[in-house]
Amino acid sequence: MAGIKMVHVPYKGSAPAQQDVIGGRVPLLFDVLFSSMPFVQDKRMKVIALSSPKRAVSNPDIPLIAESVPGFSAVSAIGIIAPAGLPPALLQKISADIGQVVRSAEVTARMGQLGMEPVGSTSEQYTAQIRQDIDKWAAIVKTAGIKLD
Question: Which Pfam families match (predicted)?
Answer without folding.
Answer: TctC
